[in-house]
Amino acid sequence: MGNTDQSHPSPNTYNFNSSSSGASHRVGIPPPQPFVKSLKNTLKETLFPDDPLRQFKNQPTRKKFALAQRYVFPILEWGPRYTLEFFKADLIAGITIASLAIPQGISYAKLANLPAIQGLYSSFVPPLIYAMMGSSRDVAVGTVAVGSLLTGSMLSAAVNPVENPTLYLHLAFTATLFTGIFEAALGIFRLGFIVDFLSHATIVGFMGGAATVVCLQQLKGIFGLDHFTHDTDVISVLRSVFSQTHQWRWESAVLGLCSKKKPNMFWVSAMAPLTSVILGSLLVYLTHAEKHGVQVKGINPTSIMDMEFGSKYLTTAIRTGIVTGVIALAEGIAVGRSFAMFKNYNIDGNKEMIAFGFMNIAGSFTSCYLTTGPFSRTAVNFNAGCKTAVSNIVMAFAVMLTLLFLTPLFHYTPLVVLSSIIIAAMLGLIDYEAAIHLYHVDKFDFLVCMSAYVGVVFANIEIGLVLAVGLSILRVLLFVARPRTLVLGNIPDSKVYRSVEQYPNTNNVPGVLILEIDAPIYFANSSYLRERISRWIDDEEDKLKSSGETEMQYVILDMSAVGNIDTSGISMLDEVKKIMDRRSLKLALANPGAEVMKKLNKAKFIEKIGQEWLFLTVGEAVGACNYLMHTQCKQKLSDEDSQKYSNNV
Amino acid sequence: MGNTDQSHPSPNTYNFNSSSSGASHRVGIPPPQPFVKSLKNTLKETLFPDDPLRQFKNQPTRKKFALAQRYVFPILEWGPRYTLEFFKADLIAGITIASLAIPQGISYAKLANLPAIQGLYSSFVPPLIYAMMGSSRDVAVGTVAVGSLLTGSMLSAAVNPVENPTLYLHLAFTATLFTGIFEAALGIFRLGFIVDFLSHATIVGFMGGAATVVCLQQLKGIFGLDHFTHDTDVISVLRSVFSQTHQWRWESAVLGLCSKKKPNMFWVSAMAPLTSVILGSLLVYLTHAEKHGVQVKGINPTSIMDMEFGSKYLTTAIRTGIVTGVIALAEGIAVGRSFAMFKNYNIDGNKEMIAFGFMNIAGSFTSCYLTTGPFSRTAVNFNAGCKTAVSNIVMAFAVMLTLLFLTPLFHYTPLVVLSSIIIAAMLGLIDYEAAIHLYHVDKFDFLVCMSAYVGVVFANIEIGLVLAVGLSILRVLLFVARPRTLVLGNIPDSKVYRSVEQYPNTNNVPGVLILEIDAPIYFANSSYLRERISRWIDDEEDKLKSSGETEMQYVILDMSAVGNIDTSGISMLDEVKKIMDRRSLKLALANPGAEVMKKLNKAKFIEKIGQEWLFLTVGEAVGACNYLMHTQCKQKLSDEDSQKYSNNV
C-alpha cells in the first residue's frame, strides 16, 4: 500500500480544488439502522407490498371494525350503493353466463371423470360465496377445463373412477377442501407472490398445451369411441384413436362438426352452447344415438361427511388439492386482474385468494369440486355488460332452477355435443399469436412457453409446469450468477459515462478503465466477477500495449446497478483490491448504493480502499484520476528538471 | 393520449434549445443482433467466463497440440523449469505432510467405517495423479474428515459395515468412482459455477457443524465405549455416551486429553500426530490397552473388479458419490483458490475439477476412497514451504514406504490417540470468528450459516446443506421478487440525482416524481412493481395535497439499475403507462440499458411512450420536464391575459 500510495497521491486535494464537486458530494454512509427495524421493513415489503392496513390508520375503533368487515366482505362496500340499473345489467349478464355455465359444467365434470351433476352443483354454491367475498366485479365463478382435467388425471392415477366411483367422488371433495384451505392460507399469510412465479410465458404455453390435450381427449366423443386411454399425452391418445378406426361413428363426427364451428361474437358463443345442447338432445331423442345420463337430484346435497381423511389416498388428495389450487389461483387471479385493467380498478391478490379459498371450502362441503374464475366465462360476463358480482348470484339461481326443474332435459344430451363445446372453448385458449410475440420480443420467454407446452402435451401437466417454472427460476439465477459487466466511455461534451457497446460515439479515458457491474454481488457470482474483472484488465492492458498508449493506472467500478452485496461479494472485492495492488493499479468505486455502503462500512472495506476513493458519480471519479495523473506528470517533469540542473552544476 | 399530448408538449423542442444536451444524447437503440450470435455470447459468458481457449488463438496446429497437452497436464508446463532448489523445498514439505497423512488417513478411514489401510492407500495413488493434472502448487491431496464422515453416514444407512464389510467396501469404491466421473464431468462441461452456489456462509456453517459432529463421534474413542450409535445428530450421540457412563475408561480419557492439546505452529502440529501415534502405540504396547489392527497388505491392490454396478445399492452409491463429490470439490477448490491468492497465481476451477475427477477415478480402481485437497494438509504443505505439486509425489512415496515396511508399527495404535488427533484437527474447523463476522456484516448470511450448522448438528449433513443452499437461493429470488424502489432527489448545485434516503441533503423537484428501480424487471416482480409504483404515486400525491404544493405532472423511472426485462416486465410497464395516462401523468424513462432498449423496441413500447420521453440521464429528463412545465405556465398566463383583454373590450 505504502508504495502505491506514494505513486498515487490521494484525490482529497482534487475534491477540494475542483469546482464541479465538493464536500457535499461525499458518498453518504447511511446511519446504522436497528436490525429489528430493517427486518420489519423487509418483511413489510415482502408480505404487504400493497399496504392493506393503510386505510385503518388513525381511525376510531368502531370505524376500524366496519372497515375490517368491508375488507373481508367487499359486498358490504358496494352493496349499499347498488342501483336498479346495475341490477338490469347484472341480470342479463347472469343469465348469459348461466346459459354457458350449464353445458360447460357438464362437459368439464366429464374431464374430471365426475358425474355431470357435480358440474352443475359447482355453479351454484361457490358463485354465491365469491359474490360476497370477491373483490373483482367481472370474474364469473365456475369450473375450469384445465383444473378439471388436472383433478381427473391426478385422482384417476390413484383410484379408478369407473370401478370405484364413490371413493373417487369423495376424494374429489377432499381435494377441493384442501385446495380451499391452501388458497385461503396463501391469502391469509400474504404469500400471494408465489403465484407471480407463474410467468406470462409459462401460462401461455401451459394453457395452450392443456387445451391441446383436452381437444385430443375429446376425439373420444367426436368419433364416439367406447374404449379410450386415460393418459393425457399425445402419443397414447392418437394411438388409441387410430387403433379403433373401425369404430368411428360418422354420424357423431358430423354432428360434432356441425356444432363445432366457433362463433366470434361473445353473446352468440354464450348462447350457442345451450342451443346446441337442446338441439342435440332433441336430435338424439329422435335418432336414439348414444345416451349420457344426468339423474335429477335437486340442489346441492351436503358432503361434509364424505371427506376421506382416513383413507390411504389422503396424500393423493392433498397433492391434487395443492397442485390444482395453484393452477386455479393463477388463472383466476390473472383473469380478474386483466379485466380489472379494462375497467381501471385494482384487485387485491391476497384478498382474491381468500375469496377463492373460502369458495372452494364451502364448495367441498356442498358436493362441488374445484372452481375458480375461468377465462371464457368471465369474458362472456364482462362482454354481457356485468356491473358487479351480482351477476354471479343471478347465475347461481339460474343454475338452481335448472337443477330443480330442467335436468331431465339433459337426459338426452349427446356426448358429442359436449365434446364439441369443450373443443370450441379450448381452441380459444391456444394463443399462438402470444407465442409468436414472445418469440419476437424475448427468446428465453419463448423457450419457457414452448417447454411448458411440450411438457404438457408430450408428458403431463405437472412435468410441463415444473419444466417451465424451473426454467424461469433458472433464468433469474443465471442473471445473478452471470451478471453483465460493461466498459463505460465518456459521452462527447458531457460528464456522462455510458456503455461503449450501447453508445458507439463514446471516447474512452486514457489510463482509466471504467467497469459497470449490472447485478447484485452475491455468492453466486462473486468468483465469476473476480475472473471477469481481471480479464477485463488483461484485455485493456493488451490493447494499450499493442497501441502503445499511456499505461492503465486506475480502475473505476460503477456500482450504480449493484443493488446489494453479501459477505462473499465483499471478500471478492477484497481479492480484486489485492490483485490491483499487485499490478499497482488504483481501485475507485462510483455511486455505491445505501445497502452496499452499509455492508462495505461494516466489513471495514471502505477503510481499506480509503473513503476518498469513493465517488458520487463516474464523472467525478474520472476527474480525480485525471487530476492525479496530471500532478504526477508535473512532479516527474520537475524531478527531471532538477536532475538536469544538478547535472549542469 | 391525444389530450395528454396537448397538455404535455413534446420535449423535443427542449432537447434542441438546452445547451447541456443535444441530438448526440439520444438513448441509443442497439443494432439488432442475430439471435445465434447473442446466444453464443451468452453461452460463452456462462460456461467459459475465463476464456480458456484464449491462448490457442492464431497459433500453428503443432503449437496448439503442445498447448493442449500442457492444458491437460500442467506438469509439462512447469516440469522442464523444475530446479534442485525447488526439489529440496518440496522434499521437506512432502515428508512433513506424509507424517500428517499417515495417522490422519487411518483416523478418517475410521470415520468412513472403512479399514484403516484404505486411508493409507488413498494417500498414495491420488496424489500422483493430481501432481500431473492439478493446476495448484500448494494443494496436498488426501482424504477429508467431512467427506469421510459423509461417505460413512450415507453408506452405513444402506449397508451395515460391521455385518457386511466386503459389500460396504465395494460400495465405497463404487461411490468414489461416481464421485470422480461426476467431478470430471462438471469440469469438462464447464459447470464449475455450480460450486459457487455453496456460499462462504454456507461453508463456514457446514464445516463447523460437521466438525462438531465429528468431535462428538470421537467421544466413543475418548471414553473407550464399545457400543455406539451410528446416527450423527447431537441428541442420539450424547444419549449413547451418557447411557454408558459405567463403561467410561479413565485411562483412555487421560491419554486422550494428553495428546489432545492443539499446538499453534504448523510444523509442530504436522509432526505431533506421528509422534503421538508412536508414543501412544508404545504406551499401549506396554499397558495392553484396547488394540486397533492394521494388516500388512503392501501397496494398493486393484479394485476395478470390485464395483457394485449390479447390486441393488447402486443408487445409494451414486447418490453418495455425487453428494460427497460436491462437498469435496467445494473444499478442494476453495482451499486451492485461497492459497493461490497468497502466492498471487490463478487456478482454473474447471481444470481443478477435471484433476480431482480423474484422481478419484484412478483412486476407485486402486482401493482408495474419496480424496480431495483437505484444508489442514494443504496448510501444512504451504507452511512447510512447498514450491510445486512435487511435494505430493514425495508424500506418495513416503506413504508407499510406510505401506511396505512400517505398517506393523500401527498394529498397536490406540483408538483414543486417533480420536484425539481427529478432534484436534476438527476444533480448527469450527470458525466462530467467521460466524461473528457474518453476524456483524450481513444478518442473512449469518442466518444461512447458522441454518447449515444447526441442520448438520441436529439433523444430518444433507439436510443442513439443502437448508443453507435453499436459503441462499431464496435470497437471490427474493432480491428479484421484491426489488427496492428508491425516490431520487437533486443533490445541491449539481445535475446529479440520488436516493433521498441515502443523501438527506437532496431537494426534490416540484411536480416531478423520480423513481429508481433496483433490479431486473422479471415475471417474479412485475406485479409487485406495478403495485409499488402506483403506491409511490399515491403517497406523493397525498403529500402534495396536504402541503398544497404544485400537483405532480411527471414520473421519471431511472432504469440504470434495470439489467434486463422480460415480456411480463414489459406488459407491467404498459399497465403503468395506462395508469399514468388515466391520472394524466407523463411517464419518462432515464438511462435504459442496451438489453432493455432492445426488448422495449421489439415490443413497440418505445413507440407507445414516444422516443422523446427516453433520456440519457435523470438530469436531462428533469430538465425537459421543468422546461415543459415552464412553457405550460407561460401559455396559461398568456391565455389569461388574452381573456382579460377580451373582457376589457
From TrEMBL, chains A, B:
<feature type="region of interest" description="Disordered">
    <location>
        <begin position="1"/>
        <end position="31"/>
    </location>
</feature>
<keyword id="KW-1133">Transmembrane helix</keyword>
<keyword id="KW-0812">Transmembrane</keyword>
<feature type="transmembrane region" description="Helical">
    <location>
        <begin position="139"/>
        <end position="161"/>
    </location>
</feature>
<feature type="transmembrane region" description="Helical">
    <location>
        <begin position="412"/>
        <end position="432"/>
    </location>
</feature>
<keyword id="KW-0472">Membrane</keyword>
<feature type="transmembrane region" description="Helical">
    <location>
        <begin position="353"/>
        <end position="372"/>
    </location>
</feature>
<dbReference type="Pfam" id="PF01740">
    <property type="entry name" value="STAS"/>
</dbReference>
<dbReference type="GO" id="GO:0055085">
    <property type="term" value="P:transmembrane transport"/>
</dbReference>
<feature type="domain" description="STAS">
    <location>
        <begin position="502"/>
        <end position="625"/>
    </location>
</feature>
<dbReference type="Pfam" id="PF00916">
    <property type="entry name" value="Sulfate_transp"/>
</dbReference>
<feature type="transmembrane region" description="Helical">
    <location>
        <begin position="201"/>
        <end position="219"/>
    </location>
</feature>
<dbReference type="InterPro" id="IPR001902">
    <property type="entry name" value="SLC26A/SulP_fam"/>
</dbReference>
<feature type="transmembrane region" description="Helical">
    <location>
        <begin position="313"/>
        <end position="333"/>
    </location>
</feature>
<feature type="transmembrane region" description="Helical">
    <location>
        <begin position="265"/>
        <end position="287"/>
    </location>
</feature>
<dbReference type="GO" id="GO:0016020">
    <property type="term" value="C:membrane"/>
</dbReference>
<feature type="transmembrane region" description="Helical">
    <location>
        <begin position="384"/>
        <end position="406"/>
    </location>
</feature>
<dbReference type="InterPro" id="IPR036513">
    <property type="entry name" value="STAS_dom_sf"/>
</dbReference>
<feature type="transmembrane region" description="Helical">
    <location>
        <begin position="444"/>
        <end position="474"/>
    </location>
</feature>
<feature type="compositionally biased region" description="Polar residues">
    <location>
        <begin position="1"/>
        <end position="23"/>
    </location>
</feature>
<protein>
    <submittedName>
        <fullName>Sulfate transporter 3.1-like</fullName>
    </submittedName>
</protein>
<feature type="transmembrane region" description="Helical">
    <location>
        <begin position="167"/>
        <end position="189"/>
    </location>
</feature>
<keyword id="KW-0813">Transport</keyword>
<dbReference type="InterPro" id="IPR002645">
    <property type="entry name" value="STAS_dom"/>
</dbReference>
<dbReference type="InterPro" id="IPR011547">
    <property type="entry name" value="SLC26A/SulP_dom"/>
</dbReference>
